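Figure-free illustration: sequence to structure, shown twice.
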Amino acid sequence: MTGTELLAGASPSVQALAVIGIVLLEAIALYVGYGAIEEAVGSTVLDRLANRR
C-alpha cells in the first residue's frame, strides 16, 4: 500500500504524481539510511575483511 488509495476520487494525474512523490521520498530515506549505516560500520567491516587471511 502506497497511501494513494486515499486519493480514490482524484484524477489519474494526481494519483501518478502522488506515486512519484512517494517513491522519491522512499529513495531519499533509503539513501540516507544506508549512508548512515555505511558511515557507522563500513570501516569495521572492511578492516575485518582485509585481515581475514
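We now fold a second protein in the same way, so the two outputs can be compared directly.
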Amino acid sequence: MDTLYWLLAANAVVWIGFGAYLAFLAGRERALALRLARWERSARG
C-alpha cells in the first residue's frame, strides 16, 4: 500500500467524523428547539 492510499483513507475518516459531528449537533439543536417550544406553550398556559 502506498502513501497516497493511506492519505486518502485518513481524509475519508476525517470527513466521515466531521459529518457525524454535524449530525450530532443538528440533533441536539432540534431537541433544544422542541424543548423551548414546549416550554413557551406551557408558559402561555
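Summary for the second example: Residues 3-44 form the longest helix (42 residues).
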